[in-house]
Specification:
InterPro entries: UbiK. It comes from Sphingomonas lutea. This protein folds into two domains: 46 residues; 43 residues. Helices cover 85% and strands 0% of the residues. The termini are far apart. The model has no long low-confidence stretch (mean pLDDT 84).
């Protein structure tokens, strides 16, 4: 009985050692993966939330200004067309040599 019990104890110690080794390898792999991910994220050209919001506000302001300028151009073009058309209507053709 003594020999069977000792063999079982040795087997339990071996399994515990294997489990500890595997757990250590898992922690090491996880730490390595986290470090690689941090390096990858750090190398990317990501912007922070505050920078994103600032650029978003700038784009909205530019869009509003663009719409205002578009309306102003349309008004100026309408004035230009009516001003250009007015002299043509007022101008009478010169009588030709046979008139």
């Amino acid at each position: 009985m003594q020999s069977e019990n000792r063999m079982f104890d040795d087997f339990v110690k071996m399994v515990n050692g294997f489990a500890g080794t595997m757990a250590g390898m898992g922690r090491e792999a996880e730490g390595s993966a986290r470090e690689k991910f941090r390096e990858w994220i750090g190398g990317q050209d990501f912007v922070g939330r505050d920078e994103f919001e600032a650029v978003k506000a700038m784009a909205a302001a530019a869009r509003d200004e663009n719409e205002a300028l578009r309306a102003r151009i349309a008004a100026l073009e309408a004035k230009g067309v009516s001003a250009a058309a007015a002299p043509k209507k007022a101008a009478k053709p010169k009588p030709g040599p046979g008139a």
